[in-house]
Amino acid sequence: MPVKPRLGQNFLDDAQAVQRIAASLGDLTARTLVEIGPGAGAITGALAKRAARVLAVELDHDLAAHLRTQFPSGRVTVIEQDVLHFDFALASVAASQRLCVVGNLPYYITSQILLKLAENHEYLDRAILMVQREVADRITAAPGSRDYGLLSVTVQMYGPAENLFTLPPSSFSPPPDVHSTVFRWRFAPRFEELGVDKSSFLPFVRKVFAQKRKTLSNNLRAAGYTTAQIDSALIDASIDPHARAEALPMETLATLWKNLPPSPPFGG
């Protein structure tokens, strides 16, 4: 059957890249794996040969039907559902293990999917994900680099992320207007290690990165902290008063968070 993208998909059409993605997950012999948006099934076939079980989560009705004919029930289970509504906890319990995840993420909901995975980190072991190259560069960026920012800290607080390889538009059908990068994300949250509370630390991070061109002090002032509170916290955390948030590693941001009041006096 001719497979047509109806939801903005760009199907991977590069056999070598498919094998590289599957291999990047490591040993899957006894693992249950969730594939996000399998589309035409290019990666699904390679995964089915390696994993004990593949849960292929596909929103498009016609593609889901095609996948079921291509991969009869056994190692591959096709689930016609929006991945944002997929129950990772239930799937993890059923598999009696933390899950592996793979997916060529649709550009328009990449951030929502990343947040969904972060929220379900306790049920996940590792993920191999393909996103727009510029997004991957931001996700994996190191402190002090041009791309380091809110997305970098948010993702990396749930575990280390590293770029693996980049694919040109010609690797897809239809070709997108951008390059795509495959990155690995291992789920190992750092909140306890850094001594911060997730529910308040991540909102704090959003505030310090609110305006990248502004200094850390200015962003904190805009969030409602007083000059005295800011100056004291920067001194205690050994941070240059002229520093910008993108220069600070997560450890330093955590120290700053600990030295500021739980909430700004004027409510942010």
Q: CATH H level of the largest domain: which superfamily?
A: Vaccinia Virus protein VP39
Whole-number count of domains? 2
Amino- and carboxy-terminal Cα gap: 55 Å
Largest sheet: 7 strands, mixed
Radius of gyration based on Cα positions: 21 Å
Relative strand content: 15-25%
Principal-axes geometry comes out as elongated
Structural class: alpha/beta
Number of helices: 12
How many distinct beta strands? 9
Question: Helical percent range?
Answer: 25-40%
Per CATH, what is the topology of the largest domain? Rossmann fold
- Sequence of strands across the biggest β-sheet: 4-3-2-5-6-9-7
Average pLDDT: 93
H/E element sequence = EHEHEHEHEHEHHEEEHHHHH
Proper CATH architecture of the largest domain: 3-Layer(aba) Sandwich
Q: Give me the oligomer status.
A: single chain
CATH class of the largest domain: Alpha Beta
Spans where pLDDT lies below 50 across 5 or more residues: none
Structure explained in plain terms:
There is one protein chain. The chain starts with 10 loop residues before the first strand and ends in a 9-residue tail after the last helix. The longest helix has 11 residues, at 198-208. The strands form two sheets. The protein has a seven-stranded mixed beta sheet with strand order 4-3-2-5-6-9-7. A two-stranded antiparallel sheet has the order 1-8. By secondary structure, the protein is an alpha/beta fold. It has helices at residues 15-24, 42-48, 61-70, 88-95, 110-119, 133-140, 150-156, 191-194, 198-208, 216-222, 227-236, 250-259, and strands at residues 11-12, 32-36, 53-58, 76-80, 99-104, 124-132, 161-167, 172-173, 180-186. It has two domains: 11-189, 3-Layer(aba) Sandwich (Rossmann fold), CATH 3.40.50.150; 193-259, rRNA adenine dimethylase, C-terminal domain (Helicase, Ruva Protein, domain 3, Orthogonal Bundle).
